[in-house]
Inverse folding.
C-alpha cells in the first residue's frame, strides 16, 4: 500500500457511520440501535485484542481472519447474545464487500460462524422477510376473525344457528389445531366435557388426544344450546350426533354432519364477511392450524411441545411453522442487547 493510499483510505469508523445511516433509513429504530451496539462491541474487540484504533484503522484491515478472532472474543458472552452480535457484524462485513472496499467472502463468514461459534439451541428455519410479513399478517387476520360480535338473535333460526356454528367452528380450528376434516367429523360424544379434550382417530389412523381451550368449549356449548331443540327432536342419543351440523333448508329437522367442503366454505364465507372479499383465499383452514402451532411455539418456546400438540410425525414439519417478523426480531434483539448492557455495567 502506498503512502497516498493509506492517507486517503477510509477508516473502519467512516464506513461504520455510513452503514448505520443506511440501517437507520431502512430498518426500525430498535434494529439500528442493536446494530450500533454490536459494532461497538466489535470496536472494543479491535482495541482490546488487536490494539487497533476504530477511528484511524483503514477499512482494508477487515478480513475473514479478523472475524474469526472476533468469534473467539465473544465466547465470554451467552451463546444467544454471541449469535446476535455475529450476525450484525457479519452484516457490516457484507456491506463493506458490496461497496467494493475490501473483497470478503460471505460463504467464508457463514462457515466461520457455523464452525466456531456456540449454538444457543436448535436454530429454526427462516424465510424471506416478505414471506415473514405475509405469514404474520395471516396470523393477525385469523385473530381478528375470532373476535366477532355475538350472532344477531333476531335472525331466522337457520341463519342464527349457522352464525353460532361458524363462530364455534373457527375458534375450534384455531385453539385445537384440528385439521379441517377432523373437526368436521367430530361427534358430541367425542368430547370429554369435564377434561376439555377429545380422543380422535387422526392422520394415519392413529388415536390422538386433542385439547380444547376454555374459549372453544364455551363457543361450542353456546352453539349446542341453540341447537338443543333440534337435537332433542331427533330421538337419537346426543353423543351420536355430529358436533357441527348442517343448517340449510335441505336438512329440515335432520341433524346432518357438515362435510369438509362445508368446513372450507365456512372459512371462506366468514373471511369475506368479516375481513373483506380481497382476503378470500388468503385465509384458509390451514391458516388456523398455522395460527395454532405458531401460538404454541410463542407461548412455550418449546419445539417438542408444539410438535406433540400439533400431532406432527416429524419435527421438521413443525419447524416449517416457525416464523418471526422484523418487529419480533427487533424486539428480541433489543431486549438481549439491553440486558447484556446492564450486565456489562455491573
Amino acid at each position: 500500500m502506498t503512502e497516498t493510499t493509506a492517507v486517503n483510505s477510509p477508516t473502519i469508523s467512516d464506513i461504520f457511520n455510513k452503514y448505520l445511516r443506511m440501517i437507520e433509513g431502512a430498518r426500525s429504530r430498535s434494529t439500528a440501535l442493536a446494530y450500533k451496539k454490536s459494532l461497538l462491541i466489535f470496536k472494543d474487540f479491535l482495541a482490546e485484542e488487536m490494539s487497533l484504533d476504530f477511528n484511524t484503522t483503514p477499512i482494508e484491515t477487515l478480513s475473514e481472519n479478523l472475524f474469526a478472532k472476533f468469534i473467539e472474543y465473544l465466547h465470554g458472552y451467552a451463546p444467544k447474545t454471541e449469535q446476535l452480535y455475529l450476525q450484525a457484524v457479519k452484516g457490516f462485513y457484507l456491506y463493506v464487500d458490496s461497496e467494493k472496499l475490501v473483497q470478503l467472502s460471505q460463504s467464508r463468514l457463514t462457515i466461520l460462524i457455523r464452525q466456531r461459534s456456540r449454538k444457543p439451541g436448535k436454530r429454526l428455519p427462516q424465510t424471506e422477510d416478505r414471506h415473514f410479513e405475509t405469514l404474520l399478517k395471516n396470523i393477525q387476520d385469523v385473530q381478528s376473525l375470532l373476535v366477532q360480535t355475538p350472532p344477531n338473535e333476531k335472525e331466522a333460526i337457520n341463519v342464527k344457528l349457522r352464525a353460532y356454528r361458524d363462530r364455534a367452528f373457527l375458534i375450534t380450528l384455531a385453539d385445537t389445531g384440528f385439521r379441517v376434516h377432523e373437526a368436521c367429523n367430530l361427534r358430541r360424544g367425542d368430547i370429554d366435557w369435564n377434561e376439555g379434550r377429545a380422543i380422535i382417530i387422526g392422520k394415519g389412523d392413529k388415536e390422538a388426544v386433542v385439547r380444547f381451550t376454555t374459549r372453544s368449549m364455551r363457543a361450542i356449548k353456546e352453539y349446542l344450546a341453540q341447537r338443543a331443540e333440534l337435537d332433542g327432536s331427533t330421538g337419537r342419543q346426543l353423543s351420536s350426533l355430529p358436533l357441527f351440523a348442517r343448517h340449510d333448508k335441505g336438512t329440515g329437522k335432520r341433524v346432518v354432519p357438515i362435510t369438509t367442503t362445508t368446513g372450507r366454505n365456512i372459512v371462506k364465507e366468514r373471511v369475506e364477511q368479516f375481513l373483506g372479499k380481497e382476503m378470500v383465499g388468503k385465509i384458509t383452514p390451514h391458516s388456523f392450524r398455522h395460527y395454532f402451532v405458531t401460538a404454541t411455539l410463542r407461548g412455550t418456546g418449546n419445539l417438542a411441545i408444539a410438535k406433540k400438540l400439533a400431532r406432527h410425525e416429524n419435527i421438521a414439519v413443525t419447524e416449517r411453522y416457525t416464523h418471526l417478523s422484523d418487529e419480533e426480531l427487533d424486539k428480541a434483539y433489543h431486549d438481549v442487547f439491553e440486558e447484556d448492557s446492564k450486565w456489562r455495567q455491573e
Notes: Residues 1-6, 121-133, 340-346 have pLDDT under 50 and may be disordered. The CA atoms of residues 153 and 287 lie 29 Å apart.
